[in-house]
Specification:
This protein folds into four domains: 6-88, Nucleic acid-binding proteins (OB fold (Dihydrolipoamide Acetyltransferase, E2P)); 94-250, 3-Layer(aba) Sandwich (Rossmann fold), CATH 3.40.50; 264-319, Probable gtpase engc, domain 3 (Ribonucleotide Reductase Protein R1, domain 1); 324-350. It is built from ten helices and 13 strands. Helix 3 (126-138) crosses helix 7 (264-270) and helix 3 (126-138) packs across helix 9. A hairpin with a 5-residue loop joins strand 4 (72-77) and strand 5. It is 33% helix and 20% strand. It has a six-stranded mixed β-sheet, sandwiched between helices. It has a five-stranded mixed β-barrel with strand order 1-2-3-5-4. It has helices spanning 6-10, 16-21, 126-138, 156-166, 182-187, 207-222, 264-270, 272-278, 302-319, 322-349; strands at 33-40, 45-48, 53-58, 72-77, 83-88, 94-98, 104-109, 113-119, 142-148, 173-175, 196-200, 240-242, 248-250. By secondary structure, the protein is of the alpha/beta class. The N and C termini lie far apart (85 Å). Bound molecules: guanosine-5'-triphosphate (GTP) and zinc ion. Zinc ion (ZN) is lined by residues 278, 281, 286, 288, 291, 294-296. Keywords: Cytoplasm, GTP-binding, Hydrolase, Metal-binding, Nucleotide-binding, Ribosome biogenesis, RNA-binding, rRNA-binding, Zinc. GO terms for molecular function: GTP binding; GTPase activity; metal ion binding; rRNA binding. It is an enzyme of class 3 (hydrolase). Its main location: cytoplasm.
Length: 350
Amino acid sequence: MIDIDFESLRLIGLTQTIASQLYQLHDAPANASLVRITEIQRDWLTVHDGQAEFRARALPALHDEALAVGDWMLSTTLAHDERWLSTLLPPTTHIARRGNDGRHHSLVSNVDTALLVMGLDHDFNPRRLERYLAIVKTAGVEPVVVMSKADIGDDVEQRMELLRQRLPATIPLLAVNTLSGDAAAQLAPWLGVGQTLVLLGSSGAGKSTLTNTLTQAGQQTGGVRKGDGRGRHTTTSRSLHLCADGACIIDTPGLRSWQPDADEASLTAAFEDIDALAAQCQFRDCHHAGEPGCAVRGAVDDDRLLNYHKLMREARRSQQTPLDRIAQVAKWKVMQRAAVARSKDKLGKR
Ligand SMILES: Nc1nc2c(ncn2[C@@H]2O[C@H](COP(=O)(O)OP(=O)(O)OP(=O)(O)O)[C@@H](O)[C@H]2O)c(=O)[nH]1
Ligand SMILES: [Zn+2]
């Protein structure tokens, strides 16, 4: 069992669940320490040990693992102060996306809450928000919808009302001015000690501004600990920021058209309102596309339902193997030829 300083690691988000995994590691090197990944480059990683940040390399055996910022690993120091990462502790949550090539891309691990930041200005786009919600919920991470630019946005009240009607009531929904200290108070329920948050949203939505506001509040209230040698000031990192109440925020590069890395079943569960209503549809396999006795159509926002269908089609498409796709294209061609033949037939009969 390796020795850890739970108190200082807690400041960078260590949880009981992760710490208890250490008891199950019987072959851990005695001089290993527990670290959290804060940055991933091609040839090296940056990790934080609760005191400071430093560079390390992953052992070649780990190169096939999908390492992500936020992962907890064991680090060993060899000669010349070289640090090697030897063991990955299985993450409790893991957000990934599926690229256009169908491959998985890890984004972040061990996150408790995702703040989905969207501007109430021209950034406003309920469909994109639902896409983010699907990505986050299928990863088992709690979403909080943070609508930024409440002070300068257009039709703020109408847009918030539209979202309240469209999204399930279980999803926290806030309108904030990310430049104001009030944002920290509004988000306080998710900023407790040891919590890890990630901010997702388009470029310009206000992620950096919100991070600044939340961490500045942290510097003010956390100032008393500055001098004690192992206080909050130790958490200076390029991508891991500490907030007022002890939570940490992980920065991510902006994402554009993200696809959830999820199958149809988990995507269905992520649209909890549709999933619950579907139980009352007349047909068990109802597609909510105009079948009689459908409990979903009409009850759920029309555009939300269209978006749900779109995301489901994407999930189905990316679940297909190349062979499935070839078979489907062949099937379409046959259907197309049959349709052409039928219309020619009709024309001929006229
Ligand atoms: N008035 C007002 N301005 C905001 C608010 N949120 C963001 N801004 C402004 O919008 C601009 C973009 O905000 P950023 O925080 O840089 O956006 P970002 O999401 O970090 O963008 P990327 O770093 O490109 O991903 C800045 O000029 C902010 O000052 C807000 O709530 N109110
Ligand atoms: Zn239905």
